[in-house]
Structure formats: C-alpha cells, structure tokens
Amino acid sequence: MLRTRRTGNGRVLFILSGRIETTEDIQQLEQMLAVETSGRQLIFDLRDVTLVNEDAVKFLRSCEGDGIKLENCPLHVRRWIDQVKGDDGCDECQLLDSFIALGQVYSETTKR
Questions:
Q1: What is the pTM for the complete model shown?
Q2: Which residues does 58 contact at the CB level (< 8 Å), separation at least 6?
Q3: How many domains does the chain have?
Q4: Tell me, what's the pLDDT at 39?
Q5: Range of the structural domain that residue 11 is part of
Q6: Which CATH number is 40's domain given?
C-alpha cells in the first residue's frame, strides 16, 4: 500500500506499508518518483513495511543514493541495505546475516 502526502515546505512523503516484493511494487514506486517535480525533498516512510525482497532492498539503496530519505526504516531492512552497500560478494553470508538480524528484531519485539 502506498500513500503520498505533500507538505507546504517542498517535501513529498511516500508512506509505504506491507510488502515490497514484486517487480510491480518496485515499478509502481519508480513511476511515482518519475512524476515528481525536481527540487522537492522526497521521503519514504517505511515504518509499516513488513517484508522486502532483495530487489526491493537494492531499489531502496539506489533511492537513498539518489538523495531520497528513508525514514522509520525497520532495523532488518536497514541492516540489509547497509550490507548491500558493502557487498563483499558473499551472497550466502549476506542472507545469513539478514536472517540473524530479522531474528533479533523479532526477539526484541516479542519481549515487549
């Protein structure tokens, strides 16, 4: 699900929720970004994102590299983005680290 909110200070906030895991999900986000006026601060609020796949992580990393701010990024997604940034070529290591990070997030949330 995607909601968009424009503010008077030139910011455009995309509020994302649920899963970002299909090519169509990423294409929809790319289309939304393509129609935005340059010079505006673009922000993805990821607070309610529950699941991403590797393509979504690469897309978010690319967006961040292009200056789009990622707000309220879930810890497991943030860690995965950071790992992709420092890609050492070990896909199995990255996958294992992602599952460990996800387990830590789950453990932290179930303690509450």
A1: 0.72
A2: 84
A3: 1
A4: 82
A5: 2-110
A6: 3.30.750.24
Sheet holding 11-20, edge to edge: 2-6, 11-20, 41-52, 69-71
- 3-state SS, the chain, equals CEEEEECCCCEEEEEEEEEECCHHHHHHHHHHHHCCCCCCEEEEEEEEEEEECHHHHHHHHHHHHCCCEEECCCHHHHHHHHHHHCCCCCHHHHHHHHHHHHHHHHHHHHCC
For residue 9, how far is the Cα from the chain centroid? 23
CA dist 49 and 77 (Å) reads 9
- Nearest C-alpha neighbor of 96 from the set 86, 108, 83: 83
pLDDT tens-digit map of 47-83: 999 899 999 999 999 999 999 999 999 999 999 999 8
Q: CA 62, CA 47: separation in Å to the nearest integer?
A: 19
